[in-house]
Amino acid sequence: MALAKVEEITSLSDLKQDPPAKPAPRPVKTLVQLEIVVVKLFDARIITDTKGYYPDQLLDLSDARFWGFEVENSTNQSVACDLIGSGSSIPIAGIITSTIATVAAGTRQPITSVAWMPYVGIRITFSSAPSSGKITVTAWKQRYRPS
Predict the structure, then answer these.
(1) What percent of the chain shows pLDDT beyond 70?
(2) Residue 66: what pLDDT?
(3) Is 140 exposed, middle or buried (0-12, 13-18, 19+ CB in 10 A)?
(4) β-strand partners of 96
């Protein structure tokens, strides 16, 4: 068995050094802003019957991170809120996925859902026709905006 030759190192200059490496590239700073977008689906609409009403527009979720609705019911009847989803921005093409909330008369309520579709909205229906008041549905989303 042969023994390996061991060199005696007496100083750091005796060490064999690799050529200096290129400096690492600096990280690129990416600034991302969070932006809140608010859309009125029903804007102080007066309703005096029990038909189902679709919103004037749907909320586009293509760039949304979080989203939800706020229903302000100043009528004298409770209102059922159905979540509708669609692959297009046409409200009447929306498919009702579920009843997600019933908002009592004279109250305001936030509504969120974990469902995701390209476009979402709220269809509202009164079980008893209101005789006074208005309904307002506001949709909001939080999205990323590169700066």
Answers:
(1) 77
(2) 87
(3) middle
(4) 84
Q: Is it the case that residue 48 has pLDDT exceeding 90?
A: yes
Q: Which residues pair with 35 in a beta bridge?
A: 143
Q: Where are the domains of the chain?
A: 32-141
CA distance 36 to 143: 6
Mean pLDDT within 17-31:
64
74 exposure class (CB count in 10 Å sphere: 0-12, 13-18, 19+): middle
Indicate the pTM of the whole model: 0.71
Tell me the sheet residues that pair with 85: 95, 120
| Highest-scoring range by mean pLDDT, 6-15, 84-93, 107-116 | 107-116
Rounded to whole angstroms, the maximal C-alpha distance in the chain is: 104
92 in helix, strand or coil? helix
Third-level CATH fold of 32-141: Jelly Rolls (2.60.120)
Grouping H, G, I as helix, E, B as strand and the rest as coil, residue 104 is coil
Per the structure block, which two tokens stand in for 119? 């476009």
User: Which residue shows structure tokens 């949304």?
Assistant: 64
